Amino acid sequence: MAAAREELQKDLEEVKELLTKATRKRLRDVLMTEKHKLELEIKNQPPPKPKDAVEEEKSSLGGYTVKINNYGWDQSDKFIKIYISLNGVQKLPAENVQVNFTERSFDLLVKNLNGKNYTMTFNNLLKPISVEGSSRKIKTDMVLVMCRKKREEKWECLTQVEKESKEKEKAAYDTSDPSEGLMNLLKKMYAEGDDEMKRTINKAWVESREKQSKGDIPMDI
Description:
The chain is an alpha+beta fold. 44% of the residues lie in helices and 25% in strands. It is built from 6 helices and 8 strands; from the N terminus they run αααββββββββααα. The protein has helices at 2-21, 25-43, 51-61, 160-173, 178-192, 195-213, and strands at residues 64-67, 72-75, 79-85, 97-102, 105-113, 116-122, 129-139, 142-149. The strands form 2 sheets. It has a 4-stranded mixed sheet, with no helix packed on it. The protein has a 4-stranded antiparallel sheet with strand order 2-3-8-7, with no helix packed on it. A hairpin with a 2-residue loop joins strand 4 and strand 5 (105-113). The two termini are 41 Å apart.
């Protein structure tokens, strides 16, 4: 967890440095959005554990640790329910399946399941949860994490980052200004693309600027 916080802090410092150099409004807007997102993620990181506790936990784990990426989720009026499939988990002692909750996060640790440890972390949950009212249940080949909602309202997704990603994707296509929509789409493609994609977009941007300077096209891309 400390490593994740450190990486987020490094990303934030780099974004701040880029902001000092950026002059274009659109670029500054993108950087400001990223800055606010990183600050929110850092704020919602669980507090670092004392060094002694971390060392004790490491010594008790041993073996190989697997990060869990696959899960299902559902919700009721009162709970967000996350389903994690783990073969044979019901055979473990109950203390080997641990979940730590904060108001906007939780992390799951399953120790010594078939010689491996399994972890899953959710930071920056979409809305606050009740730490006291949240729990986990061990079922056949499954762990069910139950996050008690502080307010009985529907969640459209699990995390704030997911929500922002959906809003950005929607904005890339849903706009009354065609050039604005194209710019948003290009930004998304550039951010998610490989080196070849980035070179292609850069080339198209340069060619567009050259044509615009000659008066061939009016649109700013």
